[in-house]
Automatic annotation (TrEMBL), chain A:
Organism in which the protein naturally occurs: Paenibacillus cucumis (ex Kampfer et al. 2016)
Keywords in alphabetical order: 4Fe-4S, Electron transport, Iron, Iron-sulfur, Metal-binding, Repeat, Transport
Origin: domain of life: Bacteria
Domain 4Fe-4S ferredoxin-type: residue ranges: 304-335
Protein name: Iron-sulfur cluster-binding protein
Pfam families registered for this protein in UniProt: Fer4_8, LUD_dom, LutB_C
Length: 506, 243
């Protein structure tokens, strides 16, 4: 199993590990399918899903286009609420700010609710190196923390583990054998974590949305652990990506409609907390001190990039992972970064601004568009994957063999005579290997293909070789007259088209 | 006189010419004589998807030239038809070609789109007494939006029993060079697709894109499964001949 820092070199080799892990494949299939069906049912029941989806997209497009304005508004309002705001350009800077706060508070223990940004920052590792205990309190995060792994899904971090594997991990922690029963296992974790909540000096949260108009932050969760993290410890630190902003509470209504339905098929998560500053004198609970660390870490590189700016619209629902037929077979660790699935395949190279190191992830997609279809804010991830591939080629990092192949392709496709000749040469060349209209030979580029398939042979006569005789035959037959209504339809379409043309289809 | 042209695609040209023939004969029976511009080669999708856009422009220009004076262009692949929708972004810096690209985008239709949206025909009078399942290809259904057209055509075929394909909308794992570069992931995907085809106990798998069908048929044959794989144009043509 891949672990942070211990990574196989390529997505291909990492995927190979996953493809040979039947437990992983079964567990990932089972849960992604449940989530995908849940989302489908919830969006159908909603009734106006496409309209809300478009509204969500517009809110995100508008916010990101004016991110400087809304970020400024958020920061001013949050400061007025008594929140300490910090800015981190890099993940290292974010970690060191969090560490400074912890040192200042002489903290020995931090409880964490789910935060993908903290994974991006490798915060647990940093805190633990400084002798500060960091405990994940989201059940899934807690499980993978015990396993020493990274999350393999944005929303369901331990999606790749079944309950028997989880029972084994938790039994080790409990020092007794726990039944692989979800009630027993969750019961053990609840009891264990209750102590940790009470002991902790600092509560660390992520942030689903930050509301500019009031300087508030909003958390969606199902387990109540984020509520504990943000109310029990004396100090709260929130890590947020700089793009988490939405302008207003009215916009949150749209996001609250889209996010839980897309993530888990829920109409709303069990808890949705809006937090506006630290505890005031009249409040029953809440931290005395509150810090928000706003993290860039490559996000601002996307601003002004017409091909990738929409990446910042992502609301981290994980719907694209659940819809992805590649993720379904290889799980999240194969992607090698903090974020997995289609969004990870684009986000990881984009945030790292280093497509050379990460570019192989973009190849692990059949470009089927299921991610785009599932996305509640319509991010065209399938197009972005192609843009990543193109930038790699333009930067001269294309695979040498592929580059030669593509030059050859262009030479053949440039001219129909050469194209026809290539087909003819193929027809002659294949004779030695064709059996019963198929080729089973596992050689060269056919090796991978024919491990799972029998390749078809080229037709004895291509369509273009048959065309003249087909055309002549039809010319000799009596011509069927076109139906008048059909003719009129066609003429109408041509008239409607006008110059420049109208698009049909999607 | 309307000029309606056939955009054959490389796979149907070189491997599955029977698909093009079925389209030509089916449409001729409705008074539409397809013409076939010989200068066309490939839509350029293999190089486009791999990130080689200069090479793509070379191939795309043969398609733009081939169909510049056509009124309608009909293609047996949703994926290759959708590729044409990418042409305008490829030629933003070449105004003359950009005009051609926009014109072609407006007049290019996938086969069932052409039958249903343009001609208004959903019943070809075909008879095909078999148990059939349908795989909606990703680019055609998701990106081009061809969802209802094939189902309307299939529902009017006499004797045909259409059985739903479980997880029909999942990609078959083809993805062009993906099937070569990431062959094990692609292999896992096509294996699962064929598992689902087998579950339906259909005699025939029908679709609208020979690339996906070549992939699925290849795995069926690899596993010695006797399911017949057909493009909808072939099925309809066979169905009108034997009625």
């Amino acid at each position: 199993m891949s672990q942070p820092g211990v990574m196989d070199e390529t997505v291909k080799s990492r995927a190979g590990l996953a493809l040979n892990d039947d437990f992983l494949r079964k567990a990932v299939k089972f849960t992604t399918e449940r989530l995908r069906n849940g989302k489908k049912a919830a969006s159908e029941e909603h009734g106006n899903w496409e309209e809300w989806r478009e509204r969500g997209r517009q809110i995100r497009l508008h916010t990101i286009a004016h991110l400087d304005y809304y970020l400024n508004e958020f920061v001013n309002n949050a400061r007025a609420n008594g929140v300490h705001i910090h800015f981190a350009d890099t993940s290292a800077e974010a970690a060191s700010i969090a560490l400074d706060i912890a040192a200042h508070k002489q903290a020995t223990s931090v409880v964490k609710s789910k935060s993908m940004v903290s994974e991006e920052v490798h915060l647990n590792h940093v805190l633990e190196s400084a002798g500060i205990e960091a405990i994940e309190t989201d059940l899934g995060e807690y499980i993978i923390q015990l396993a020493g792994e990274a999350p393999s899904h944005i929303v369901i971090p331990a999606i790749h583990k079944n309950r028997y594997q989880i029972a084994e991990l938790l039994s080790k922690e409990a020092g007794e054998v726990l039944e692989p029963d979800t009630t027993v296992l969750a019961g053990f974790v609840r009891k264990k974590l209750r102590e940790k909540f009470l002991e902790a000096d600092i509560g660390l949260t992520g942030c689903n949305f930050a509301i500019a108009e009031t300087g508030s932050m909003v958390l969606f969760e199902n387990e109540g652990n984020a509520r504990m993290v943000s109310t029990v410890p004396k100090t709260q630190i929130t890590l947020m990506g700089m793009e988490r902003i939405i302008p207003s509470w009215a916009d949150l209504e749209v996001m609250a409609t889209l996010l839980p339905r897309s993530a888990t098929g829920q109409k709303l998560t069990m808890y949705m907390s809006g937090i506006t500053g630290p505890r005031r004198s009249a409040d029953a609970d809440g931290p005395d001190e509150m810090h928000i660390i706003i993290v860039d870490n490559g996000r601002s590189l996307q601003l002004g990039d017409p091909e990738f700016q929409e990446l910042l619209n992502c609301i981290r629902c994980g719907a694209c992972l659940n819809a992805c037929p590649v993720y379904r077979h290889i799980g999240g660790h194969a992607y090698g970064g903090t974020y997995s699935g289609p969004i990870g395949a684009v986000l990881t190279p984009a945030l790292n601004g280093n497509i050379e190191e990460w570019n192989d992830i973009a190849s692990a997609s059949s470009l089927c568009g299921a991610c785009y279809e599932a996305c509640p804010v319509k991010i065209p991830l399938h197009d972005m994957l192609v843009y990543l591939r193109r930038r790699k080629v333009e930067d001269g990092h294309g695979n040498k063999l592929e580059t030669m192949g593509m030059k050859g392709f262009a030479a053949v496709a440039a001219n129909s005579k050469r194209f026809a000749l290539a087909i003819r040469l193929g027809q002659i060349g294949q004779k030695a290997v064709v059996r019963n209209n198929g080729i089973s030979l596992k050689l060269g580029p056919l090796k991978g293909w024919n491990t799972y398939r029998v390749a078809p042979s080229l037709a004895k006569k291509s369509f273009r070789q048959q065309w003249n005789s087909l055309d002549q035959e039809l010319n000799q037959q009596q011509h069927t007259a076109m139906d008048t209504s059909v003719r009129e339809r066609m003429q109408q379409i041509v008239r409607d088209r006008g110059e420049g043309g109208s698009k049909h289809g999607k | 006189m309307m000029k309606v042209s056939l955009f054959i695609t490389c796979l149907s040209d070189a491997i599955y010419p029977r698909v093009g023939e079925a389209m030509v004969r089916l449409l001729a029976a409705h008074g539409i004589r397809l013409e076939f511009p010989q200068v066309q080669t490939c839509c350029g999708q293999p190089s486009y998807n791999s990130g080689y856009w200069d090479e793509t422009r070379v191939a795309a220009k043969t398609i733009l030239e081939a169909f510049d004076d056509s009124d309608f262009v009909v293609c047996p692949s949703g994926s290759c038809t959708y590729m044409i929708h990418h042409y305008p972004e490829l030629f933003v810096d070449e105004p003359e070609w950009l005009d051609k690209a926009k014109r072609l985008e407006a007049k290019a239709y996938e086969f069932t789109q052409f039958l249903v949206q343009v001609l208004g025909i959903t019943d070809l009078g075909a008879h095909f007494p078999h148990k059939v399942t349908y795989h909606p290809s990703c680019h055609g259904s998701r990106l081009l939006g061809v969802k209802d057209e094939p189902l309307a055509l299939l529902s009017n075929v006499k004797g045909l029993e259409l059985v739903p394909l479980p997880h029909a909308e999942d990609c078959c794992g083809f993805g062009g060079t993906f099937a070569i570069k990431m062959s094990d992931i692609s292999g896992a995907m096509v294996t699962e697709k064929v598992d689902h085809v087998k579950e339906t106990q259909a005699e025939v798998l029908v679709g609208l894109d020979m690339a996906c069908l070549m992939n699925i048929a290849g795995n069926l044959r690899h596993r010695n499964e006797p399911v017949r794989v057909m493009h909808l144009a072939e099925l309809l043509y066979e169905g009108v001949q034997t009625r």
